[in-house]
Every structure is written in C-alpha cells, then in structure tokens.
Design a protein that fits this description.
By secondary structure, this protein is of the alpha+beta class. The protein is about 45% helix and about 10% strand. It has helices at about 5, 20-35, 40-50, 55-70, 80, 90, 135-140, 145-155, 185-195, 200-220, 270-275, 280-300, 310-325, 330-340, 350-365, 370-395; strands at about 105-110, 115-120, 125-135, 165-170, 175-180, 220, 230-235, 235-240, 245-250. Helix 3 runs antiparallel to helix 4, helix 10 runs antiparallel to helix 12 (about 280-300) and helix 15 (about 350-365) crosses helix 16.
Length: about 400
C-alpha cells in the first residue's frame, strides 16, 4: 500500500466506514494514479477507473481529496477509519504456537491483506524457510478459499523458476504454508535501488519468468498478478511467487472479489483483466510480463490505461517513453516489448513459449550485435536477390528473349 494513501485518511461523516486491507490494496494504486493525473483530467480518470460503480467512484474521489488535504487530515479520527489495524492479529505478529517446535521464528518479513509471512528455521531439515500464515481476521472476512486455492496451485506447480511448496496445514485455526526463504530479495527491491537495469539482465529475468509462465499455463493456470514484488531471486535466478489470485484457464467467472473489486495490481493488469473480462488466457499474463520488462528497461512502469478509448494512445505513448529512456535500445527489444504490450490480445505473443523465443533472440542480439547485423544484411541481400530474379522472370514472358528468325 502506498504511503501517500495510508498516511492520509480521515473520519469525516462521508458515509464510508473502515477499509479492509484488501480494499486498500485496490484503492492505493488508483489513488496514486489519480494524484499523478493532471487536475483537469482527474474526474474523467476516476470515472473510467471505476467503470460506472457509483459507490467506488465516490470513495475514490473522497480518498483523493483527503490525500490532497495533506497532514491536516491527520488531526481527524483516523483511528476509526483504520480500525482493522487495531485487531490483535493485524498489529501483533502471531505465529501458531503449535508450530514453534518445528519452526523457530526469527522475524516477520512481510504482510499483505490476507496473510503474514515469517522467516523461520526448519528444525527438521536445518534450513531457513518462509512461513505464510493466513490472518484470522482475513479468514473471517473473506473466507479461506483463496488461500487454500493458492496452496493447491503452488503444490501442483514444480518448476525451477516457480517458488515451491514445502509444507502446509492448519494450526490453531490458522492456515499456513511453508516455502523456501530466498535472501536475494525481490525485483521490486532491486528496482528501488536501481530503477533501470542493464538490458541483458532485464531480458534474462523476463526469460526466467516466461519459463515459469510457460509451465503454469501448460498446467492450466493463469497467474493474474505478475509484478516486481512477486519475482524473487536465488543464486542469480528469478523465481515467480504468489499464486494467490491464480485461476484455471478454463474458468469463466469474472475476475472479481466477492465485494465486486477486480483482483490484481492495476499498473500491471492487461486491459481485458482491468475491464473484468469473463475469460482470460495466457495473453493476459504476457501483457503483465511486458509491463515488468518495460519497467526494468525504462525505470518506471507504463501508466495503466483505464478505458478502451485510450488503449491505442496509451500503447503509443509507452513506446515513446521507452525510446526516450533508452536511446541505445536494440530494435528487436523494442519490438518485443511493444508486441507484449499490445492492447489487442490477438496481436500479442500467443503464449509464454513464443515470448521466450523472442526474448532469446533479443539476448543473442545483445550478446553478438555484429552477428545480428550480418544476419540482417544477409536477409536484405537474399530478399533483394529474390525480388530481382522474380522481376527478371516476369520480363522474360512467353516469346521473349528469343533471337529473331
């Protein structure tokens, strides 16, 4: 959740009660995007982002106004607005005591709207692990189905570039699962330290994620939340994590939560996912991976397009920003990013396998630019030769080229 959002909330009689962590996860990026939109276009942005939902529109407008008011709103009753943070399980790191004999907890290393993640030591196997525990309040609020689905999906996927599942279960009415702990950090933390990565490094990371997606898609799952914070590193390799909102490919439900809020992260959503499409396929994840690749190269994520009328212009602007950020970007890499970010799913790579091949070709161009240039010249020469031969053949039609009698 953005600090700009979490630090600016009030308790005025606006008819809105406390927001849950899941709601903040959705509203946070939207508020930031609205604040970054020029005031003259902000109302239209909010209307487009909420897609006609009057209650969501009013709430988003109110949150933006509160953020604009600055620190003055902190004198109001923010405690009530953030009352969910005062529940014991929300503010105190709670690790099931019955697991303490198996896992010795070191510290909390992360938390989200649904769960808290602890760094622990697996005493049975003498290894560091990350233990993800579902918050009791989240279980009471939205149920355990999503968390259980994440466990089942993670257990079904075994691949070198997907974070594996070690163990899972229930202790003291808390669901949990155990996964490896990687000390390489996340792509998000790497980009915080260095917003623009070398192009060859960006391609290597994208290739690792594409390989993970190729396996997940082949097993019938769409991730739906590809973003830098869900990409971890171990021994220089990238691994894809957090299948909490993954869904089977054939599922036809709208991509909404029970409260009617679209799941995922707005900055990295495909246009069809942001629109709440009833069906999503592998090309939606391709778009999200394109956003991540764009960010690694340009130093910032492409701004989310919020309406179908702006999709083409959004794609064109993103390409211009990419060129402006990296003047030396090889054309093959630019084409790869541009195709992945196409607003039209049919114009994107058909799947992760095809994108993996494109990324590999880009990497070869970076590694050996002279060879790539020679291949390009050879292609041009062959093409010109073919054209000249075809023209000559047409010029020698029936009866032509013979000596006169």
């Amino acid at each position: 959740m953005s600090d700009r959002v979490s630090d600016h909330a009030s308790n005025r009689p606006d008819g809105f009660g406390p927001l849950s962590p899941d709601e903040w996860r959705v509203f946070g990026p939207l508020v930031n995007a609205a604040l970054d939109t020029p005031p003259a276009r902000r109302a239209q942005f909010i209307a487009d982002a909420c897609r006609g939902d009057a209650a969501m529109t009013a709430q988003l407008r109110q949150l933006v106004e509160e953020c604009e008011q600055g620190d003055a709103v902190l004198d109001a009753g923010a405690i009530e607005r953030f009352s969910f943070l005062l529940d014991d399980d929300e503010t105190v790191s709670r690790f099931p005591a019955t697991l303490a004999g198996r896992y010795h907890v070191d510290r909390e290393i992360g938390r989200g709207g649904m769960a808290i993640v602890f760094l622990a030591h697996d005493t049975a196997h003498d290894r560091p692990v990350a233990v993800k525990v579902l918050r009791p309040s989240a279980r009471a609020r939205v149920g355990a189905d999503r968390f259980l689905a994440e466990i089942r999906t993670t257990a079904a996927l075994r691949h070198p570039h997907i974070v594996p599942l070690y163990d899972s279960g229930e202790a003291e009415e808390s669901l949990y699962y155990v996964m490896p702990y990687y000390d390489g950090g996340t792509l998000a933390s790497r980009l915080d330290a260095k917003p623009q990565l070398p192009v060859d490094e960006a391609l290597r990371i994208a290739s690792d994620v594409a390989a993970a997606l190729e396996h997940a898609h082949g097993a019938g799952f769409i991730h739906r939340d590809i973003k830098p914070s869900n990409i971890l590193f171990s021994s220089g390799q990238a691994l894809l994590a957090d299948f909490g909102v993954a869904r089977p490919v054939e599922r036809t439900q709208r991509g909404l939560t029970s409260t009617g809020v679209i799941v995922g992260t707005p900055e990295y959503m495909s246009p069809e996912q942001a629109a709440g499409a009833r069906t999503l396929d592998a090309r939606s994840d391709i778009y999200s991976l394109g956003c991540v690749l764009f960010e690694m190269i340009a130093g910032e994520a492409p701004v989310a397009a919020v309406s179908s009328e702006t999709l083409s212009r959004h794609a064109a602007r993103a390409l211009l920003r990419l060129r402006a950020a990296r003047h030396d970007l090889p054309p093959s890499v630019e084409r790869c990013v541009s195709r992945a970010l196409s607003p039209d799913p049919s114009a994107r790579y058909a799947g992760a396998t095809e994108m993996s091949h494109a990324l590999a070709a880009c990497a070869r161009t970076i590694a050996d630019p002279e060879s790539a240039a020679r291949r390009g010249l050879d292609f041009i020469r062959k093409s010109m030769t073919g054209i000249m031969l075809a023209a000559a053949a047409r010029g020698r039609g029936p009866g032509r080229g013979r000596a006169p009698d």
